[in-house]
Every structure is written in structure tokens, then in C-alpha cells.
Amino acid sequence: MQNLSYQSVGTVCIYCGAGCGLNVQVVDGHVTGVLPARSHPVSQGQLCAKGWRATDFVEHPDRLQTPLIRRHGALEPASWDEALELVADRFATVARETGPDSTAFLASAKCSNEENYLLQKLARGVVGTNNIDHCARL
Ligand code: SF4
């Protein structure tokens, strides 16, 4: 029988501001699921339906592995530099032609607090719009 490596990694659920504690189960370097953290002060060993599925996206076959750019009606793999340059150009064009409030930003629960903080700085400080929201409110 093959020896499998096993880890249980303590972390916080990413899906809402409650911040429930969970332990990510990792077998041979692959995320296999979560278990609630019994001693966590917020959740005390419980998770909601979203928390129990908190890692499903990590190795999902539909997860994007590279940026995609639509060319001639079809999505094609692109480098991060190409994709970021295109997004920056499009935001600048829209903001210049129709005003910054013609743009909007939607932050993600799958990003860290720090990444979401930086997104609102980009929206407000660089593009000049307060049109920013977070998927946890949808
Ligand atoms: S387990 Fe549910 S309630 Fe707890 S942080 Fe995740 S989404 Fe929020």
C-alpha cells in the first residue's frame, strides 16, 4: 500500500466577513476538502454550506489557468502582461471618454483583505470612481 502524506492546515473561510475557522485537508499536496476548526472562537466547530465547500474551486478543472483575451469572437490564452495592459488601456479609454463613473469594480471573496484593499485604492485613487462592491453582498 502506498504511503500518502497528509496535512491539516488551519485557516479562515474566505467566503464572508464572519471569518469562520477551518482546517484544509491536504493529501499528497492536493486539497481534498475542509473540516471545521473546533477551537476557533468565531465558529466553534461549525461551518455553513459555503464554508464546507470553501476549497472546491482550488483544483476544479474549470478553473482558469491563464488569462484569456477575446479575439475575433473567441477567447484565447494570453500572458498576464498582455491581459493587464489590455485591461488598463480599456479602463483608461472608458474613463477618458465617458467619465470614471462609467467604470465599476467587483472585489472577490477569493482574494485576501489586502488584495481587496488594493482594488478599492485602484478604483478610488487611480481610476477615480467609488463604484466598487464585493461579491459577498450579492
Ligand atoms: S463558513 Fe459560512 S458563515 Fe463562516 S465565514 Fe464561511 S461563508 Fe461565512
At CATH level 3, the topology of the largest domain is N-terminal domain of TfIIb
Shape: flat
Radius of gyration from the alpha-carbon trace, in angstroms:
19 Å
- What order do the strands of the largest sheet run in, or round the barrel if closed? 1-2-3
Distance between the termini: 47 Å
Secondary structure: helix percent? 25-40%
Number of helices: 3
Helix/strand order, N-terminal first: EEEHEEHEHE
CATH class of the largest domain: Mainly Beta
- Which architecture name of the largest domain does CATH use? Single Sheet
Describe this structure as you would to a colleague:
By secondary structure, this protein is an alpha+beta fold. It has three domains: 6-52, ADC-like domains (N-terminal domain of TfIIb), CATH 2.20.25; 64-98, no CATH class; 103-138, no CATH class. Helix content is 28%, strand content 25%. The protein is built from three helices and seven strands; from the N terminus they run βββαββαβαβ. The protein has helices at 49-52, 80-98, 113-127, and strands at 6-12, 21-27, 30-36, 68-71, 74-77, 105-107, 132-134. The strands form three sheets. It has a three-stranded antiparallel β-sheet with strand order 1-2-3, with no helix packed on it. The longest helix is centred in the middle third of the chain and has 19 residues, at 80-98. The protein is flat. Bound molecules: iron/sulfur cluster. The site of iron/sulfur cluster has 11 residues, from helix 1. Iron/sulfur cluster is lined by residues 13, 15-16, 18-20, 43, 47-48, 50-51.
